[in-house]
Prior knowledge:
- It catalyses: DNA(n) + a 2'-deoxyribonucleoside 5'-triphosphate = DNA(n+1) + diphosphate.
- It holds the Pfam family PHP.
- Keywords: DNA replication, DNA synthesis, DNA-directed DNA polymerase, Nucleotidyltransferase, Transferase.
- It comes from Salinicoccus kekensis.
- It is an enzyme of class 2 (transferase).
- The protein is of the alpha/beta class.
- It folds into 4 domains: 3-148, DNA polymerase, domain 1, CATH 1.10.150.110; 153-244, 2-Layer Sandwich (Beta Polymerase, domain 2); 255-320, DNA polymerase, thumb domain (Beta Polymerase, domain 3, 2-Layer Sandwich), CATH 3.30.210.10; 328-561, TIM Barrel.
- Helices cover 42% and strands 15% of the residues.
- The protein contains 22 helices and 17 strands.
- The relative contact order is 0.07.
- It binds one DNA strand through α2, α3, α6, α8 and α13.
Amino acid sequence: MTKKDIIRLLENIATYMELSLENPFKVSAYRKAAQSLETDPRSLSEIDKFIDIKGIGKGVNEVIVEYVEKGESTVFKELQESVPAGLVQMTKIPTLGPKKIAKIYKELGIDTLEGLKNACENEEISALSGFGKKTEENISKAIDDILIRPERYAINQILKFREIIESHLSESEHVERFDVAGSARRMKETSRDIDYIVISKDPQAFTEEITEADFVKETVVSGDKKLSIIIEDDLQEINVDFRFVTEAEYYSTLHHFTGSKEHNVKMRQIAKKRDEKISEYGVEKDGETVTFDSEADFYNHFGLEYIPPAMRETGEETELDVGDIVTLEDIKGDIHMHTVYSDGAFSIREMVEACIEKGYGYIVITDHSKSLRVANGLDEKRLIAQLEEIRAINEEYDEIDVYSGTEMDILKDGTLDYSDDILKELDYVIAAIHSSFQQTEEEIMHRLESACRNPYVRHIAHPTGRLIGRREGYPIDMDRLISLAAETGTALEVNANPMRLDLSAEAIRHKDVMLSVNTDAHHTDHLDFMKYGVATLQKGLIRKDQVINTMTREDFREFINKQK
DNA sequence: GCCGTTTTCGGCCCGACTGTTTTCAGTCG
């Protein structure tokens, strides 16, 4: 059992209680308790008394203790007996909350999505008091949608949707200014929808214009202050919301709709203690509404430093020294990238020049090793030839240090793809798993341990092998890997490619481990991925001094020349 | 169910919008 299991139990209890029409504050007490556990830096084995955690009192503590000891929960079991699981499915239908679901269940005995769909077609829903034709249509349509549509989209897909919308917004004469908000702005791994804050002199004209665009499938809500549409790209579709605001409100609204919910709740509690009230229109004090010229001003108003969007997740970020947390400006080099030698699209020189553009002081060229044939991995002879070319190119540039490295395969049996005799010639060695993902956790951990213990391996690339929304990655004992990394002086990578973000923010949060954040670029355009990697570090509340590539050019040189 | 520099009861973040009503409940972000 892990902490995650307990968190899931508490969240399930909250959902089931909500559907039993329990006191909403009791429901939210369970959600808060789950959140407190999540935010607590300790692992399950390190927590001896749950009741000492803020947000966990007598009641929730009993539930947790029983669950930890017996592996089951009486409270949850009883809820499951009284609340059909199908009702939980119904909570996914927008506009259907616990009250309406309970009513449908109580009065019509409907407890499945299919049953609900039938009832809509038979006009049984609109016959209920408080429900009308419109509600019935909406429910019916929403059921069709949830059956075909994923609940959340991976950040990679979100970026594609954003390009469509943002190129329209940039060109529209009715848009003075806009910013993306919501989880997309916070660069979450996945998002349910996309939000924009827009200043427009004529929201109605903007609405007419965009709803005519061919990528718009449907208009959901259309008012003076808000527009909600569904857009489509290939076969995928997603909700996009626009909030129309005045210049003065802009940053308050941007902050409000950037969230997260938990962050906003925390900010409002801070405001309340000062007899102030935060809304999307500003901060109300003594009946007057204060507005701001930037989000930094907003935070400063409350005596806080600017908190970057990516960090605004649990609320905990309002309580720590944000200045210690890594930012994009702190990143001085990219130490994992590919060239035409293996499966990259550009030459060493082209990668070097693109990195100079980025202002980096150093980079490491890390092409694939010989066993990764699909990626045209380098055998020893080509590797040495590349090393010589890198040395020569490095001589030509004063503004950047170019190091020779490799992204070497950790083979199935735990041996490494190059011998130590070869590795010692290189400046920087990365090891990674690219094969046999179906092995057991023990076999995978044996491979990772063997790489960590090699004296030349500096870091482990994309340690779990996951692809967001596409594959889980191989089985791994994260606590063990982190302690191995610490013991052997090996860094773990946060791969900045938005399909990977591996390690995840969740995996690194509150962990005292050395990390390395890299784009793994196979194209010069991929060098821009760094911001997603940094966002992941920020969500993990990672300090600058935990990240190898925040080192200055000189420190990195010294680091390279030093034995591991 | 949780919490307390307003401390053992009473409040728990706040406001907008929709669809249903005829003044508002429910839902959402």
